[in-house]
Amino acid sequence: MSKSKVWLKPLVLIAAVCLVLAACSNGNKQSSESPSASGSESPSGDAGSAASGNYTLGISLPSADHGWMGALVSNAKAEAEKHGNVKYLLYTAKDPAKQTSDIEDLITKKVDAIVMLPIESAALTPAAEKIAQAGIPLIVIDRAVNTESYRTYVGGDNYGIGYGDAKYLVDALKKKKGKPEGKVVEISGVPSTVTDLRSKGFRDYIKDYPGIEIVATQPGDFTREKALKATENILQANKQIDAVYSQDDDMTVGIVQAIRDAKRDKEMFIVSSGGMKEVYQMMKEKQSPEVVVSLTYSPTMGGSAVNMAVKILEKKGLEGFWEKSVPHHIVLEATPVTPENVDQFFKADANY
Question: pLDDT digits over 4-57, tens only?
Fold first, then answer.
């Protein structure tokens, strides 16, 4: 319609403009009051909103079926909820196929970044590649993927855990038998870089001690139930065991139960990792079998990974770093906790 055919009085025109502005204002207010967090049930539609300074973060984690993972999920949620400009979509899965499907859904929703802890390293590598192809920053926690197509990795020193546990095992065998020799059992985790690195670090250290023999290795899949069954099988097959290398404190709880049920708790000791308060309690009370060491592998890395994702989206670096970007690879220290220093680390109200 041409301007010559518009015959609106000034007052009517002003009123119309005011109505339009009011409608726009109400629409913006409704958008800003949308929920800041979402659980495993995700809203439909596209999620990305980075242009406005608000972000949607996808979080894909294994199901919280044991203490460490439960604490990690809790820590990730707590960190996401600290940020007023972040909405998060949290998915958990029990198997790689479901996790892959979850990742594809997050890509379809066009989230601004994804935080992922792979259930299995190799199985989730193609999903990591799809995230990269979609141009979405990926922050990987704990278990690495077999590609460099991620923005940042945050995890513990898994090789250092295996190496450190082996060192404490050798020293304990020297104390027990007068020399570094004995029959050792390994209870390992799920197929992942975590398991591989912990096994490699352990073997790299003990290879210089030919008197130490690994008589059995079985997976406990990072759960106390499967570790208990694996240990029961090994105890039945081996009449002599001097030490157990447990790759995880949750598994150690199951291992301890199996050893006690077999009434062989005076025969062997355990080296472990994770920093779990139940294991710290065993140390404090000098329970049998003795847990000689637990190297820290804190589930707080879940919160740290979410924090890194937000910094990446906001184009910020780490405090104290001159570089204004988040590093590609962040490895956390594995601190030895022993019966001698356990009081410094034990917290009765810890969530793990």
Answer: 333 333 333 333 333 333 333 333 333 222 233 444 433 333 455 555 579 999
Q: pLDDT band at 333, cuts 50/70/90?
A: very high
pTM above 0.85, yes or no: no
How deeply is 243 buried, as exposed, middle or buried, from its count of CB atoms within 10 A (0-12, 13-18, 19+)? buried
Q: Which two tokens stand for residue 34?
A: 């949308």
Q: What are phi and psi of 216, to 5 degrees?
A: -160, 145
Residue given tokens 């020193």 in the structure block: 157
- Would you say 102 and 93 are in contact if contact means Cβ atoms under 8 Å apart? yes
- CA-to-CA separations, 66 to 126, 177, 287, 324, in angstroms, rounded: 26, 35, 22, 37
Domains of the chain: 37-150+300-332 (3.40.50.2300), 158-297+335-344 (3.40.50.2300)
Q: What is the DSSP letter of 174?
A: H
d(CA 126, CA 118): 11
Q: Using only the alpha carbons of the chain, give its radius of gyration.
A: 26
Closest alpha carbon to 116 in 74, 73, 160: 73
Instruction: Report CA torsion sign: 213, 215, 219, 225.
Output: negative
- Statement: residue 329 has pLDDT above 90: yes
The pLDDT confidence band at residue 68, using thresholds 50, 70 and 90, is: confident
Phi-psi region of 263 (alpha: psi -120 to 50; beta: other; left: phi over 0): left
